[in-house]
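Consider the tokenized backbone below.
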């Protein structure tokens, strides 16, 4: 197999094997598409339809998970069926030049960062303290399209301004019963709608749940899962539970995001270090966490008086 697939175009390394990417490439060419650039979890392609313009992203992480569990002889059929479905979707709605005409369809997407080496790539800003990135997408009934820098230039709007609108749209489209409490013993809340934006709803945690003086622990192991735990002294003794949830679901579920656990307090995100092994639990909170616990202690004392 050609070595060019081991690190195509010198871009970010990927876990996808060279043989898998070669099969994807050959199938795309057969369908009339041109491979533009590779991402760690997918590929940017140029459509045969000139009217579509630019490049479009196809995520492959879920397909690759399935392929690794299957016999390699099944890969060509599996990949072709997947790509035929995706390219049918990509041939769907024409992306407008002015994003204001689809303002109600804008949504945020929270996930791992894209590379910035292709000619066309999704607009995005880092979510400080996480290593994750917030992107903008246009939500259609059967698909979505990433908002690119080029689209923003044509529209004449800043991505940050449209992000505010996208967050407002997502809040409106979040059902009142989005969060379910895990059990009577643990006040962990899990949200899952399956609409592709559950991880992004982590950006709305402080709006969607009652106020928590010391903030919330947040886990977003996959695109379709969000777990939130209000910080309390009682929860601290069981903190390993949310870490195990993040690890297990990140490993097992489609569209993985991160196995990290975060702490969200007053609109700021922090990595909350938790390490679990057979014998030990090691917790490495950010320095600011102690100040939050002091506030929580004072709040609990005042409630007892």
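A designed sequence for it:
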């Amino acid at each position: 197999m050609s070595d060019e697939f081991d690190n195509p175009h010198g871009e970010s390394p990927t876990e996808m094997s060279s043989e898998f990417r070669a099969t994807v490439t050959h199938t795309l060419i057969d369908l009339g598409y041109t491979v533009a650039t590779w991402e760690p979890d997918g590929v940017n392609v140029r459509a045969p339809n000139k009217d579509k313009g630019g490049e479009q992203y196809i995520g492959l992480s879920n397909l690759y998970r399935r392929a690794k569990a299957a016999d390699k002889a099944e890969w060509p059929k599996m990949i072709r069926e997947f790509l035929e479905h995706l390219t049918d979707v990509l041939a769907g709605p024409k992306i407008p030049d002015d994003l204001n005409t689809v303002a109600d369809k804008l949504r945020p997407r929270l996930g791992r960062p894209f590379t910035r080496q292709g000619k066309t790539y999704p607009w995005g800003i880092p979510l400080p303290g996480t290593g994750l990135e917030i992107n903008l997408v246009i939500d259609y009934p059967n698909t979505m399209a990433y908002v690119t820098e080029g689209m923003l230039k044509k529209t004449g709007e800043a991505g940050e301004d449209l992000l505010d609108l996208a967050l407002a749209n997502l809040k409106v489209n979040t059902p009142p019963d989005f969060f379910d409490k895990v059990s009577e013993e643990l006040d962990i809340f899990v949200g899952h709608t399956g609409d592709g934006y559950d991880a992004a709803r982590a950006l709305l945690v402080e709006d969607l749940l009652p106020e928590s003086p010391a903030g919330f622990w947040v886990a977003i192991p996959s695109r379709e899962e969000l777990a939130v735990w209000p910080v309390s002294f009682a929860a601290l003794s069981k903190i390993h539970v949310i870490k195990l949830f993040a690890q297990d679901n990140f490993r097992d579920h489609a569209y993985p995001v991160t196995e990290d656990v975060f702490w969200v307090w007053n609109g700021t995100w922090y990595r909350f270090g938790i390490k679990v092994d057979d014998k030990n639990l090691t917790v490495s909170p950010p320095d600011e966490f102690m100040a939050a616990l002091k506030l929580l202690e004072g709040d609990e004392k005042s409630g007892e008086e």
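Residues 1-13 have pLDDT under 50 and may be disordered.
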